[in-house]
Amino acid sequence: MATKKELLQHPIRHIDIKQHNVIALVDAMQQMAYSSRDLGRAASIYERMLRDRECGVILCLAGSLISAGLKQIFVDLIRNNMVDAVVSTGANIVDQDFFESLGFKHYIADELLKAGTEDGMLRELMIDRIYDTLIDEEELRICDDTTKIIADSLEARPYSSREFIREMGAYLDKAGKTPEKTGVDGIVYAAYEKDVPIFCPAFSDCSAGFGLVAHQHERGNRPKVSLDSAKDFYEITQLKIANPTTGLLMIGGGVPKNFAQDIVVAADILGSDAPMHKYAIQITVADVRDGALSSSTLKEASSWGKVDTTFEQMVYSEATMALPLITGYAYHKKAYAERPERRWSRLLEPVTA
Amino acid sequence: MATKKELLQHPIRHIDIKQHNVIALVDAMQQMAYSSRDLGRAASIYERMLRDRECGVILCLAGSLISAGLKQIFVDLIRNNMVDAVVSTGANIVDQDFFESLGFKHYIADELLKAGTEDGMLRELMIDRIYDTLIDEEELRICDDTTKIIADSLEARPYSSREFIREMGAYLDKAGKTPEKTGVDGIVYAAYEKDVPIFCPAFSDCSAGFGLVAHQHERGNRPKVSLDSAKDFYEITQLKIANPTTGLLMIGGGVPKNFAQDIVVAADILGSDAPMHKYAIQITVADVRDGALSSSTLKEASSWGKVDTTFEQMVYSEATMALPLITGYAYHKKAYAERPERRWSRLLEPVTA
Amino acid sequence: MATKKELLQHPIRHIDIKQHNVIALVDAMQQMAYSSRDLGRAASIYERMLRDRECGVILCLAGSLISAGLKQIFVDLIRNNMVDAVVSTGANIVDQDFFESLGFKHYIADELLKAGTEDGMLRELMIDRIYDTLIDEEELRICDDTTKIIADSLEARPYSSREFIREMGAYLDKAGKTPEKTGVDGIVYAAYEKDVPIFCPAFSDCSAGFGLVAHQHERGNRPKVSLDSAKDFYEITQLKIANPTTGLLMIGGGVPKNFAQDIVVAADILGSDAPMHKYAIQITVADVRDGALSSSTLKEASSWGKVDTTFEQMVYSEATMALPLITGYAYHKKAYAERPERRWSRLLEPVTA
Amino acid sequence: MATKKELLQHPIRHIDIKQHNVIALVDAMQQMAYSSRDLGRAASIYERMLRDRECGVILCLAGSLISAGLKQIFVDLIRNNMVDAVVSTGANIVDQDFFESLGFKHYIADELLKAGTEDGMLRELMIDRIYDTLIDEEELRICDDTTKIIADSLEARPYSSREFIREMGAYLDKAGKTPEKTGVDGIVYAAYEKDVPIFCPAFSDCSAGFGLVAHQHERGNRPKVSLDSAKDFYEITQLKIANPTTGLLMIGGGVPKNFAQDIVVAADILGSDAPMHKYAIQITVADVRDGALSSSTLKEASSWGKVDTTFEQMVYSEATMALPLITGYAYHKKAYAERPERRWSRLLEPVTA
């Protein structure tokens, strides 16, 4: 049997779109067929939404994307003013991004481990597997514990996930887990610095959930931190009301996709005549024919009054292949050059500024 | 252009597994190959978990399942003591099941509408589309409003989604929206009667979210209802601790799958030596190769210490085809006959009883 | 290491649709959504095409269907006059159906073998794997040899695959490999008895190819049997010309689907004003978005003038799940009761009769 | 209604991998997860097989690839000595590549046409659709007619598809349809010049089938050209025997994949102790779980003794996205620089040289 050390040797390296000028390649793809043409059109739409100075850009993340080597892309989008808010599954933000900022890594699994026949052995070694990637579960437990430490330090009241994640950024800052000191940048930290709000509508469904359950268990009947997911929805709706022109860059589907699309309806319910999302891109491998949300087309979303169909594009591709091309195209086109900074966190938390 | 009335003529009818004895058919499928054999094995595992008197059964729902004609199956599972807890997306529970209990219906869309080229017309008619199914958006707004009415009526404090959904059941009872009076049964109501807890870990991401946002907006700085998703996680973990042997029947993936699997780890964090889920079935069309949670295999979950692999089965099929066969098999085998009622809601809310 | 005998213990059993009256189940599926509704509609279209007395029915087979336990369905369709011609991959007809008629079987593979990590061991044991099914390669070599024996016995000239397959039926008859004597029925034999022509447009791409290569190698420059695939196309086009109203029941895509669809155009080229296929059903898991033939929609085929769109239905499902329901529905509805026998083989080979 | 001219305005442009140095991008993908890592590994294996001077490389093509803008890649592989033989569906070679060499083009379809709701209109305009791509059917009929002209000009005897396709190359040469004269290069022509044999094992299933059916119909009982698909199998097996070390670069599955894999077994049957394919790459979107050939893994092929598993890689991606990266990587790495030219057509047809 292999040892833990032998299995956790080769870390995932995050792709750096700044190093790869893909403009000519993506332009060529636009003249072809199938997914390459769709990808080319999606890249153009992303460029267009960045050049639209009225447009606030919301990035939606589902699926294990950080562990897959896409973290640096999201960091670059935040640091280069190419995204104004993030909606994500908790796993990407806490178990994977915050985890790496704490000093841990994801590892390349040997091809044979994908088959799953060795998962019992991994279990014994306390190694967790995500398809072809490995994680040290003992390190993940430290991440769980850290969220408890953060919860313990907060005033007892309901928090939106955004508020809690901002506290995670502040924690990294105080603990010296910053790119300047450790050489490791991350989404939580970059968003903290750039006042980009991050929402996790199912925030208990991740490493933070473990920390919060432990916190609440320990507090018993005493005052405690709670997670108000309705407050998340309320806050993000305020952004739509304040900045009616919006665009979505969605990787995967699930709760983040639905949540971000729903703010159009929520704004309407709050009495604001907000328009549909003007731009929308989704990268997914989900199959449209089961009627599930993850794969529902952006045209379908237009029947719900959520997404306009003039500038929408589904790209049926696994994200590690499509995302570097789409975001790299917009980056090298310098589509962000004239964009105003929005610093939406300040809008939600005026006292922060 | 068609009128709304013309488009909303043919309601979806929910399949009734009690009418279809599929035992011989499913037994035959076990001797074949591919998905039919997997389905046959899944049906056997479901039968086995029901016959295991120690085993608490958790049903996980993701994807638009109620609108698709599967509601009566879930009602029958609850009423026949074939499931002890439910974890679901909010849409299934509120926008679709509670919606139907309020007296509304889902409608069969004409084949041509699937293509999406008529979604602009649907938008104008205030008709929402789910792939091949239509909903009257004006009726859906009534559903949103009803959740606000419920929220307005509650004591201002943090609620788990389970507590709120139980209040939705109580509302139906008080409002006379019961099967006895309207002829329409539903998951929320049956679970209310049978003390089966329902958890929606991303509860703001549905019709209830709209109601709660409106509620919180109106309350402003006054005390208000909030949704504590950490409390959800805490409560469901208590069930695992109280009843260590568990089995999962999962339709789709997403947050419900992850949330239910994670309670094994959460129990461990709370100091309880809970075993992995002993049985696990997942029906999905998700593609394993994007590394996403929805499609991660049950073997992969075993590397995380969440699911035992002796009795696990993935069935790669769209749920409307596979679920009637799997549940119908266990029903007609009378696998539930000797099962103890668990009435887990009482465990979480002793004062209710 | 397991022995060959241990691994080849549990034979695949072919499902018998005659034993399962699925009418009520399939009728219920028509009132639901997604694949079940599509399946219900496909079953209705198959019933309708059988009741249309003008309509000749062509069955198209791609994918490993016989090894998967679907053989008896095709035998029943032939024997009950529910199909008039077959277009197939060679593997289904020779390596799997003829193979079973020679007295061999397919075996259920243990779940763990699916992962592929034991394929080296299987190789050493001379066991071939089809996903979750096993074949004794030594038996398969006997099947290859038998096709050489048949080729050696024939007059040296170009043959259509149909002619060669008919000789395979005659061989079984002469060799006493008949259902009466062995208890094993098959597609090749039933089609031989019922004068249903079978076409394999890529006939060298199967066990028969091995036999024919050996035959041609041995003959060297002497006269030899050759396979004229243009003759196949010519013959099947004659059927379309003789019987202009046609319907397609397609399982999988690939060459059989394209070949059967193309006869409309071929008839036109030969100066016959043949109409498009009036009915068309396809069962497939193929993804439409790669532009490949297997997954091209039947609507797309209508742009080519091949398939009418009034009665067409794609069913996105793995065939072992959908086919027993679709064919069982038409069988129990007795849709074939008034159909005239076509005995199309006689049309192509008048001297046979 | 749009006119034909309006719809056929924007031609597909074939991507030119020589213009895009993707080495750094693909190297970065190897350090990530999921499909990008698989793609990176596939590119390395292709480089490795080209550097192995013993290795003959067989390219397998299924799916509509030429119409999708991939033609120039295959031309470049042939002209730069990066492939030694081609196995393809007929459509790629005749209906699409030869068609373009005759002077015709494929066109970009408007996004809305994908849905299929306008296929009746396309039918009336004699425009054929391949997902998001359009073809002028009147031009396609000229392509059909040209194959008849070629058949009419040949000596009446059985031909392998390879022999016939070589005659198509000679026809282009004689008719002045050469890159020098028209500016349009193609697979058929490049392979003719470079003595790279092309096999279409289901050759009647394409535009050439229409020409040959018309030829045979006109000839009636007189001597005629026939297509001997067994001869195809015999010929390609001779290549394996002459050059035992082989590698496969497969796009899509279907008949080409199976045919090329089967030559290992055929060589064995002819008494030659040929090794398994030493290298194998497949790019596909096919789903492994239906047991079909297109999606059967390369590990599964090793149980059949067809493919060695040391250097094999499946890439689950639509080909227009993955192929430019994989082939571009090997091209820019100059992996072909030291490769010997094989000119395998001469081996099969010594008199040609």
Descriptive report:
The structure is a homotetramer. The longest helix of chain A is centred in the first third of the chain and has 18 residues, at about 35-50. Chain A contains 16 helices and eleven strands. Helices cover about 50% and strands about 15% of the residues of chain A. In chain A, a hairpin with a 2-residue loop joins strand 4 and strand 5 (about 135). The model of chain A has no long low-confidence stretch (mean pLDDT about 95). In chain A, the strands form three sheets. Chain A has a six-stranded parallel sheet, sandwiched between helices. Chain A has a three-stranded antiparallel sheet with strand order 3-5-4. By secondary structure, chain A is of the alpha/beta class. Chains in contact: A-B, A-C, A-D, B-C, B-D, C-D.
Separation of the first and last Cα atoms of chain A: 54 Å
Radius of gyration of chain A, in Å, reads 20 Å
Strand order of the largest sheet of chain A: 7-2-1-9-10-11
DSSP helical segment count of chain A: 16
Strand content of chain A: 5-15%
Please summarize the sheet with the most strands of chain A: 6 strands, parallel
Helix content bin of chain A: 40-55%
Low-pLDDT segments, ≥5 res of chain A: none
What oligomeric arrangement do these chains adopt?
Answer: homotetramer
What is the global morphology of chain A?
globular
Give the mean pLDDT of chain A: 95
Q: What pair of chains forms the biggest interface?
A: A-B, 78 and 78 residues
Q: Give the beta-strand count of chain A.
A: 11
Structural class of chain A: alpha/beta
N to C succession of SSEs of chain A: HHHEHEHEHEEHEHHHEHEHEHEHEHH
